[in-house]
Amino acid sequence: MTAIDQIREVLHLVSGVLMWPVLLGLLLLAALMIVVLGEFARESFDTVFGKRVRRARGLARREKVAAGANGSGEAMDLRLERALQDEERRLWRPVAQLRPVVRVGPALGLMGTLIPMAYALQGLAEGNLPSLASNLVTAFAATVIGLAVSVIAYLVAGVRESWVRSDIQALAFRADELLGGASARAKG
């Protein structure tokens, strides 16, 4: 056996070891996307019935109460700024969690395609048609699942991003309203 044949055997062994983690990763991502779609459906329902807007306005009102009626404008300004930053981080978190899935899904799908294809070709060379068919089915299923996971994550992240931007604008507008009222009271 030549050196190149030994390298091929090692690569074949490594790819075989990677097959199970790749397929399990695809199944986990598919399960995650089912959960994400459920959360997205709930968020869509909340958006349609205006709960997201009420929640955004409620944060600003809570901060006004927390600042106190006789608190200084500067203290209210700092509290509102901190609350806005905390809320913005909280709002962006679900979007940020989907970004890696957009890239990892197709990568795992491609790996899940190519690894079984090697076994399918080996089955073809050996005349083992059931092995060929089984590995081809696995390869194509991995491709479909990887792409589907990525597309779902991309679309959900895009819609959530627009909601977050809208919520942040509503929060910033409400904070400006509160600060305008606080500065008017401080001048008066």
Set down the secondary structure blueprint.
Blueprint: H1 3-48, H2 51-67, H3 73-126, H4 129-187
Q: Keywords, please?
A:
single chain; mainly alpha; 4 helices; 94% helix; 188 residues
Q: How would you characterize the largest beta sheet?
A: none
Please state the average pLDDT score. Answer: 84
N-to-C CA distance? 92 Å
Shape: elongated
Proportion of residues in β-strands: under 5%
Number of extended strands: 0
Quick recap:
The protein is mostly helical and 188 residues long. It has helices at 3-48, 51-67, 73-126, 129-187.
3D structure, described in words:
The chain is mostly helical and 188 residues long. 94% of the residues lie in helices and 0% in strands. It is elongated, with a radius of gyration of 26 Å.
